């Protein structure tokens, strides 16, 4: 094929999702108005007015808000701090976001992966794991809403049970929630952070999915007992994060552009999710299984047992479509992550057609 | 005293050194023109056009330029990578910049501090250290030009000898050079990186002192053998750095504003350095020793033996002036770092007067 492959691999927003012209105006306004602050060193926790705005949203003091260079940087800081405080195993979902797995590998942590089902992480399985060993784990990493990579969401009942368990066990948790606001339908669920009270749960999110990823504005609501040490760690890593993009995000919020943009983003992503589900229903009914996420960037597809998604990918690239095999996230060999965020509805339709064609050409599983 | 103390502690530029209005124009122009790229995920090494510009300055391929969130972040990445490759002791100058010392402590590294004299690091002392142990060190960290904290500069002859030694020993080196361009007088010296050829020397610098620190645009010229691994490490830390401020720096360069701004910055800092030297000559002649740096932000002052700078600081703060005691950088108890970068020439004059007054009230050393 001569055309570039259609990417179900890229977990990034399509260019039209990003409000570039409005951001340019915001950057200009805030740099003119607040240049002395924006272009100087500042606190390790980032641009003050944005910290205050986020603190208000989450009903905490601004000293508990740490703005990071994207959300992943928050994971890096938290993992370093938490592994130093409480060395031990790190509990993650199976499958989970691949970059944290790589970081934990670099940190030399023992990783214990907990199987999920359709409702997400199973609190009973977590409880059993905690009872199985006398040493406390260092922390639990969870993405309860529109998870990367599966798109699955922890049910309301399980959130309450998880919060209970965390509270009774004093289990440190990093709740990563970059996709929560990108909900197309259904009612929002309370975060584990809210249910637990934020004593042992650190909540992290970012503006990558709601405004623009290149701004690299992530944030964490840090447990009070961790806040000053985490800001110290930040200061002796990069002193101050890049303030201009944090100030630009603040200006975007201050002008009241956030809600309308979020509605626009939700609509554009919903159309993509719908296009993918329609094409899958049409092309792969009975030949694979997948979920129907109510938001986010991803869905999770399982091929018949014995079909190797990584092997399929090698041919798929030639066949004009790409995706990420589930094994990259610690998932089963027959699974794959399909991102509907980056390509257009028409490309999604065509991409699923290509995927179906490739699957049809795949020898039946032994 | 009711007025705030005059700060010889802050190693930051005075607000008037920062070209905030021009930066606002540059941010706007580049965000409008290049928004799709600036607000999207990009390479771990940063904004392409700026990488290419820096690569041209240093005569390397752009894949060897890694833009970081300020210069210190480059140290963090290099130390992590180098300590993983070649575990062992890290050689530093005594005294040296305090933040890297803190980072090395966090990394669990053994730190060996090499005494400096007026000409900087002594290559013979380095050679003797290398011969004294059979294990290779992990790396050497050096700030050869207008060093933080001492303001001292490695002589041309010693640079050549250091480069020779590095070449013959294949000693990994991080040459940190944030102040090199901020030279008020005298001829620029070649970097160790240039003299050695950039095989085992990583060169790092930033635009914090030449444009604005809050932009957080640092960069490293990475040895070819390290480039792809370092960019991998970056990508699994924050995926992409904040691109808007990197693009703003690029636009500032593209418009030809850099040289004129640098001249302006040099002039403002030269006036501050001169004010400090004049005041010291007038107020402290015979009662302390200090150097006369040809550039940078700092000078180094030594009190009579037995005088404790940390103890003086406690009283100095009340007395309306602050500085950083030398011990914070691994220096002697009677030494201190005086930054002339942040306050005005008039404040510098008054601050030195206050320092002299305090010193006069100090009991003679035992």
Classify the oligomer.
homodimer
Please tell me the overall pLDDT of chain A. Answer: 95
Strand tally of chain A: 14
How helix-rich are the residues of chain A, as a percent range?
A: 40-55%
Order of helices and strands of chain A: EHHEHEHEEHEHEHEEHHHEEHEEEH
Number of helices of chain A: 12
The share of residues in extended strands of chain A comes to 15-25%
Shape of chain A: globular
Largest interface: A-B, 48 and 48 residues
**Largest sheet of chain A, described in full?**
8 strands, mixed
Q: What's the gyration radius of chain A in Å?
A: 21 Å
Class derived from helix and strand content of chain A:
alpha/beta
Low-confidence runs of chain A (pLDDT<50, min 5 residues)?
none
How many angstroms does the end-to-end distance of chain A come to?
A: 30 Å
Order of strands in the sheet with the most strands of chain A?
Answer: 2-9-8-7-6-3-4-5
Descriptive account of the structure:
- The structure is a homodimer of 366-residue chains.
- The mean pLDDT of chain A is 95.
- Chain A has helices spanning 20-38, 48-58, 70-85, 98-106, 123-132, 156-169, 192-196, 227-238, 243-254, 258-284, 309-318, 345-360; strands at 6-7, 65-69, 90-94, 111-117, 120-121, 139-142, 173-176, 201-206, 217-221, 289-290, 298-302, 321-322, 324-325, 335-339.
- By secondary structure, the first copy, chain A, is α/β, with parallel strands linked by helices.
- In chain A, strand 6, helix 6 and strand 7 (173-176) form a beta-alpha-beta unit.
- The radius of gyration of chain A is 21 Å and the shape is globular.
- In chain A, helix 1 crosses helix 9 and helix 10 packs parallel to helix 12.
- An eight-stranded mixed sheet of chain A has the order 2-9-8-7-6-3-4-5, sandwiched between helices. A four-stranded antiparallel sheet of chain A has the order 10-11-14-13. Chain A has a two-stranded parallel sheet with strand order 1-12.
- Chains A and B meet through helix 1, helix 3, helix 4, helix 8 and helix 9 of A and helix 1, helix 3, helix 4, helix 8 and helix 9 of B.
């Amino acid at each position: 094929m001569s055309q570039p492959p259609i990417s179900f691999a890229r977990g990034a927003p399509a260019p039209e999702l990003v409000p570039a012209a409005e951001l340019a105006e915001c950057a200009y306004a805030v740099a003119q108005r607040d240049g002395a602050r924006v272009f100087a060193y500042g606190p390790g926790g980032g641009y003050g007015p944005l910290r205050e705005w986020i603190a208000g949203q989450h009903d905490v003091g601004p000293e508990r808000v740490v703005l990071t260079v994207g959300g992943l940087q928050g994971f890096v800081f938290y993992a370093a701090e938490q592994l130093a405080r409480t060395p031990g195993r790190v509990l993650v979902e199976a499958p989970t976001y691949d970059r944290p797995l790589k970081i934990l590998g670099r940190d030399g942590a023992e990783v214990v992966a907990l199987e999920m089902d359709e409702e997400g992480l199973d609190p009973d399985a977590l409880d059993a794991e905690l009872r199985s060993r006398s040493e406390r784990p260092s922390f639990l990493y969870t993405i309860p809403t529109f998870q990367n990579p599966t798109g699955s969401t922890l049910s309301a009942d399980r959130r309450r049970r998880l919060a209970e368990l965390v509270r009774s066990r004093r289990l440190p948790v990093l709740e990563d929630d970059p996709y929560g606001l990108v909900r197309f339908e259904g009612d929002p669920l309370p975060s584990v952070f809210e249910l637990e009270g934020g004593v042992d749960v650190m909540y992290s999110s970012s503006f990558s999915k709601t405004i623009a990823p290149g701004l690299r504005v992530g944030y964490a609501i840090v447990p009070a007992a961790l806040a000053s040490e985490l800001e110290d760690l930040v200061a002796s890593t990069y002193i101050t994060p890049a303030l201009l993009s944090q100030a630009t995000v603040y200006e975007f919020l201050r002008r009241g552009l956030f809600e309308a943009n979020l509605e626009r983003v939700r609509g554009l992503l919903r159309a993509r999710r719908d296009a993918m589900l329609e094409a899958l229903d049409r092309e792969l009914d009975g030949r694979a299984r997948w979920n129907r996420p109510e938001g986010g960037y991803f869905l999770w597809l399982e091929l018949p047992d014995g079909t190797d998604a990584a092997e399929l990918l090698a041919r798929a690239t030639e066949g004009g479509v790409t995706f990420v095999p589930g094994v990259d996230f610690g998932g089963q060999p027959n699974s794959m992550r399909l991102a509907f965020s980056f390509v257009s509805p028409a490309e999604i339709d065509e991409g699923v057609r290509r995927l179906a064609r490739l699957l049809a050409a795949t020898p039946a599983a032994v």
